[in-house]
């Protein structure tokens, strides 16, 4: 079953769905924890989602919930299991995974938080979409859409501020979608040579977030812009001490 990954943008208000109450200690800033909890509440408002999530402390491909658990089990039992299985492992990307009520075995949906950026990974055959699961107020963007926004910026020509802003957002978004994909480093190396400072700054932001320390040292060695050097110097100083 192919996994499809999407960058989720939009209003994360949870509406009438009950938000998760046990996501306050993810190791991320409080705003990120709230974002994940709000998106989780929206997701669990979908009839396609089985409200039995598990966190990054567990294998995303293996549902740890007891298969024999009765729907009539006491509410205290459900709360205890939910608290246990939504546990987040320190140092990992905050993540929650749910089974889907679909015919194919293993269908599931995962939400990840990369600082302020939300990513959905959908493993389901057919035409199921993120918008169908999350409802109104959310927009799902694919890697193809983000790459298309970068395609017109790969020339050395001067571009409008709006286009540069969208390009910067595409780089940062791909940093979340591809956070464990080797294609990301190749893309960052290419864009690190772009003449526009706005795009090079986005490259630095993504590399810093993902801990690409040697790459950041390489950037410092060739960067001539004074402002970007001021950004790189403390990051690479930390890298040398670590």
Feature tags:
single chain, 242 residues, alpha+beta, 9 helices, 43% helix
Distance between the termini: 40 Å
Number of strands: 6
**Widest β-sheet, arrangement of strands:** 2-3-4-5-1-6
* Overall average residue pLDDT: 84
Order of helices and strands: EHEHEEEHEHHHHHH
State the domain count: 2
Report the uncertain regions.
12-28
How many helices?
9
Structural class: alpha+beta
The amount of beta strand, in percent, is 5-15%
The geometry reads as elongated
Radius of gyration: 20 Å
Largest sheet: 6 strands, antiparallel
In helices, the fraction of residues equals 40-55%
Structure description:
The chain folds into 2 domains: 3-141, no CATH class; 143-241. It has helices spanning 30-43, 75-85, 130-134, 143-151, 161-177, 183-191, 197-210, 213-222, 226-241; strands at 3-10, 54-55, 95-99, 108-114, 117-123, 138-141. A 6-stranded antiparallel beta sheet has the order 2-3-4-5-1-6, sandwiched between helices. Helix 4 runs antiparallel to helix 5, helix 6 (183-191) runs antiparallel to helix 7 and helix 8 (213-222) runs antiparallel to helix 9 (226-241). By secondary structure, it is of the alpha+beta class. 43% of the residues lie in helices and 14% in strands.
